Amino acid sequence: MNGRPLTLLIAAAVVALEGLVALGLGVYVAVQTLIGAPDDLISALAVAGFAVLVGAGLLWVAWGGLVKMERWGRSPGVLTQIFMLPVGGTLITSSQPQLGIPMIVVAVAGLVTLLAPPTTQALYGDGQASDADPSRR
Asked: Model-level pTM?
């Protein structure tokens, strides 16, 4: 596994899954916008474009950051999980627990694996060589 702990691989998989879902939803909204008759074409395309960008960004974080063991990958990963928690809670209170509960479970799994000690060790090492080693910046 090239020194990648299981927690880091799971975290990368969680972030990649979130990226794929966002990308898929963005493409779906774009297609539905183009074949349908939206009330506001510009807003619908903007939402679709934003979802595609978020999805692509999360896939980049998963692959370019976490799988490649770059420290910068953890921050956007953690931030994504933090944002997902209240969205999942809102879905639950909006009578959509079938969407909210899995979202919260995935977000918690992402947070636990991103903040796990083996992930921290893999991304940051022991903390002593990080200032001296330019390859870890």
From this structure: 0.86
